[in-house]
Design brief:
The complex is a heterotrimer of chains A (169), B (366) and C (101). Chain A is built from 4 helices and 9 strands, in the order ααβαββαββββββ. Chain A is of the alpha+beta class and 169 residues long. Chain A has one domain. In chain A, the strands form 2 sheets. A 7-stranded antiparallel beta sheet of chain A has the order 1-4-5-8-7-6-9. In chain A, strands 2-3 form a two-stranded antiparallel ribbon. The longest helix of chain A has 7 residues. Chain B has 2 domains: 229 residues, FAD/NAD(P)-binding domain; 129 residues, 3-Layer(bba) Sandwich (FAD/NAD(P)-binding domain). In chain B, helix 1 runs parallel beside helix 7, helix 4 runs parallel beside helix 5 and helix 7 packs antiparallel against helix 8. By secondary structure, chain C is mainly β. Chain C has one domain: Roll (Ubiquitin-like (UB roll)), CATH 3.10.20.440. Helices cover 7% and strands 31% of the residues of chain C. In chain C, strands 1, 2, 3, 4, 5, 6 and 7 form a 7-stranded mixed beta sheet that branches. The longest helix of chain C is centred in the middle third of the chain and has 7 residues. Chain C starts with 15 loop residues before the first strand and ends in a 6-residue tail after the last strand. The chains are: A alpha+beta (169), B alpha/beta (366), C mainly beta (101). Chains in contact: A-B, A-C, B-C. At the A-B interface, loops of A face helix 4, helix 5 and strand 11 of B. The complex binds flavin-adenine dinucleotide, iron/sulfur cluster (2 copies) and FE2/S2 (inorganic) cluster (FES).
Chain lengths: 169, 366, 101
């Protein structure tokens, strides 16, 4: 029996791959990835989506499901999910080797457009560097800012957090 | 003559405040007594957005939910007494201790919503300065804006341990690791995933055995070991963490003293976190004019605390006046259904089972 | 340490005041508890127990555990986690049960 540190508290690989949008749907528009794999009493994502792409059909404990054909990647659900479990991924049409991910971010300093940051995987390990493309810090986000950062397309299913090179004092 | 009220609510968290607002719509005089400087209970320390559905104010941060509840109380004409510690209910008299005085208030009915207290665990030097309950760290950090440490070891991976770890990171404090004695993380996966992607490891099947430090500066390290399925320490598996703070998030126990003193029949229900007053599904205890709601009736969370609060408020109102019987009974059934839907998942199972036991026992006692 | 910047919270800090811990001046803000002000200033040990001379600091912060008892303006057994700090207050570590001096 050993310490179960490697996977404790992490989502299951199978669940993750099922949550990722297909290459075909990503070619149409950016898409939301919902990494909410437990039955918990929660459902604001359903109301957050103006296109009706997210569904929890029975009660509020069911896991959310998403219809990627309805999702246009607007990212309204990203800051409304209290579990910070929704990301948006997309591919750069002009340069398909590059893509981007939008993540919910509740830390300081708030990144700025053009800034270079470290990109981390689900275990907080740096996998590459990327440029911040956009930061949504509007009132609607209620301090859960949505940060969009450039990522290699091949890493879209792994990149899940950023670390600023600039630190708070 | 003593001050008089129709319903005295003890505890001003989500449960108590919801009970007060609900009961106030029947022309009754309601007073809330809370021992804190600021009412709101656990909510005032919660900086994260809450789960639930829109109807239950989810998506708002806990501290903002408490503001909404307090506004509702204000517009409903509910009086809130702060720094008012209730030391007992004696017949129809509520004994209240303020910082500089003592008061007795006469009330026709009581709603007890005192919440819960934090558990402690045994390890060597567990009384060293620098070892805090999770609630203490939250109060320091999120109410007073003070951080007690540079680097923390979190004991317990339930939602509280996970959330407080995340809040520490937000306040600029490092979290060395989260330690969990059970084989699996106790809290929601979405909370643990947030920590993991920031590089915080979670060790399962491991416990803290010893804190080290001195009397001046407090803790400077924590020793942990793996444990076997019988919770015995496995030799040679030690990991030492250099931390200046150890945070205990190892569970809560209902704060039932007031109910016990009031003569309500009690029962130990492990699923609910400890000794709980027997009650029917409408939150009435074995004393006809004493009701309860929230964590004191079993450890759960804010949404169920509020819903139980509404039930208790309605039941207390019904006890005092039959004028609105039909309306009240209808509302109560609606709330019961909401509670049922909310508790319908795997995380609601404990509460479901515990409550069934209590209600069964209550009926038997009657 | 006091948090100056926070991604979610803003802290209202009221009037700055000075109190004395073991004779030395400590800065605090009105509205803070004695315990919060001491911890902000880096003090971990609040008292020493009677029987085994064990150091104790803040633990529950809600007035439930008695870990934070100190001598305040000569009065022993004051629960510093629920007592607001005031200008000029004299706060001392409590040694043992705390005799009235
Ligand atoms: C870190 C953390 C994170 C959480 N996250 C969530 C979440 O995301 N979603 C969620 O739904 N829930 C969450 N919860 C749980 C939720 O906060 C509690 O379940 C809820 O606050 C319980 O409400 P309550 O009114 O029963 O008790 P409390 O909120 O504890 O309120 C009880 C009040 O009564 C007062 N009191 C006690 N005894 C007396 C007395 N004798 N006299 C006078 N006053 C007294 C207390 O001081 C307190 O103010 C979290 C809790 C914690 C600690
Ligand atoms: S990204 Fe926009 S369209 Fe897609 S699921 Fe979220 S809210 Fe709906
Ligand atoms: S809002 Fe987020 S945490 Fe809640 S059910 Fe939807 S995806 Fe899961
Ligand atoms: S720290 Fe527990 S009573 Fe003050």
């Amino acid at each position: 029996m050993s310490d179960n540190t490697s996977n404790s508290g992490l989502p299951d690989e199978k669940d993750i791959s099922r949550a990722m949008p297909s290459a075909e749907s990503l070619a149409q528009s950016p898409k939301a990835v919902i990494e909410c794999f437990q039955e918990i009493p929660c459902n604001p994502c359903v109301e957050a989506c103006p296109r009706g792409a997210i569904k929890i059909t029975e009660g509020i404990n069911q896991k959310p499901s998403i219809d990627h054909s309805l999702c246009n990647g607007c990212s309204l659900c990203v800051y409304q999910c209290p579990g910070l479990a929704i990301f948006v991924v997309g591919i750069d049409r002009d340069n398909p080797s590059k893509g981007f991910i939008s993540i919910p971010y509740e830390f300081l300093p708030v990144p700025e457009k053009g800034e270079i940051v470290d990109i981390l995987d689900r275990e907080g390990v740096k996998i590459e560097e990327g440029t911040i493309l956009k930061v949504n810090d509007s009132k609607a986000t209620d301090r859960t800012r949505v940060v969009t950062v450039q990522v290699s397309s091949g890493l879209l299913s792994r990149a899940r957090f950023i670390e600023m090179k600039r630190r708070t004092k | 003559m003593k001050r008089q009220t129709d319903i005295a609510v003890i505890g001003g968290g989500p449960a108590g405040l919801s009970a007060a607002v609900e009961a106030s719509s029947f022309g009754l005089k309601i007073e809330v007594f809370d021992d804190n400087f600021t009412p709101g209970g656990q909510l005032i320390k919660q900086t994260h957005k809450f789960f639930g559905s829109k109807k239950h104010l989810c998506g708002y941060r806990g501290m903002d939910i408490s503001k909404i509840l307090l506004q509702n109380c204000a517009s409903a004409g509910v009086t809130i007494n702060t720094e008012a510690c209730v030391t007992g209910i004696y017949g129809n008299i509520l004994a209240v201790l303020y910082p500089e005085r003592f008061e007795e208030v006469e009330s026709k009915a009581f709603v007890v919503a005192t919440g819960a207290s934090e558990n402690c665990i045994n390890f060597v030097n567990n009384d060293l300065p620098g070892i805090y309950g999770a609630g203490a760290i939250q109060t320091l950090m999120n109410v007073f804006g003070v951080v007690p440490a540079k680097k923390v070891l979190m004991i317990g991976s339930g939602n509280i341990g996970l959330i407080v770890s995340y809040q520490l990171l937000q306040a600029g404090v490092k979290v060395a690791a989260v330690i969990e004695a059970l084989p699996n993380v106790g809290g929601y996966l979405v909370h643990s995933a947030k920590l993991r992607r920031m590089g915080v490891p979670i060790y399962t099947r491991r416990t803290i055995t010893k804190a080290e430090g001195d009397g001046n500066t407090g803790v400077n390290s924590a020793v942990t070991s793996q444990i076997d399925p019988n919770f015995n320490v496995i030799e040679g598996t030690e990991i030492q963490f250099d931390v200046d703070c150890i945070c205990l998030a190892v569970g809560l126990t209902p704060l039932s003293d007031v109910l016990e003193l009031a003569g309500c029949r009690m029962k130990y229900i492990p699923e609910l976190g400890g000794k709980v007053a027997l009650h029917d599904e409408y939150m009435k205890t074995t004393r006809d004019n004493v009701f309860l709601c929230g964590d004191v009736s079993g450890i759960e969370e804010a949404v169920t605390a509020s819903l139980e609060g509404k039930l208790a408020g309605l039941s207390a109102a019904l006890y005092l006046s039959h004028e609105y019987r039909e309306k009240i009974e209808k509302s109560r059934l609606q709330i019961l259904e909401e509670l049922r839907i909310f508790r319908d998942g795997p995380f609601g199972e404990k509460a479901r089972k515990g409550n069934e036991k209590l209600v069964r026992e209550y009926k038997y006692e009657r | 340490m006091r948090i100056e910047e926070h991604p979610v919270l803003t802290f209202k800090r009221y009037k700055k005041i000075v109190f004395y811990f073991e004779g030395s001046p400590v800065e605090a803000f009105e509205g803070e508890t004695i315990a919060a002000a001491l911890i902000a200033g880096g003090t971990a040990t609040f008292r020493v127990t009677d029987k085994h001379q064990r150091p104790r600091g803040l633990f529950c912060s809600v007035g439930k555990c008695a870990s934070c008892l100190m001598v305040v303006d000569g009065k022993p057994n004051v629960m510093t986690c629920v007592t607001p700090v005031r200008e000029g207050m004299r706060v001392e570590k409590q040694k043992g049960k705390g005799d009235l001096t």
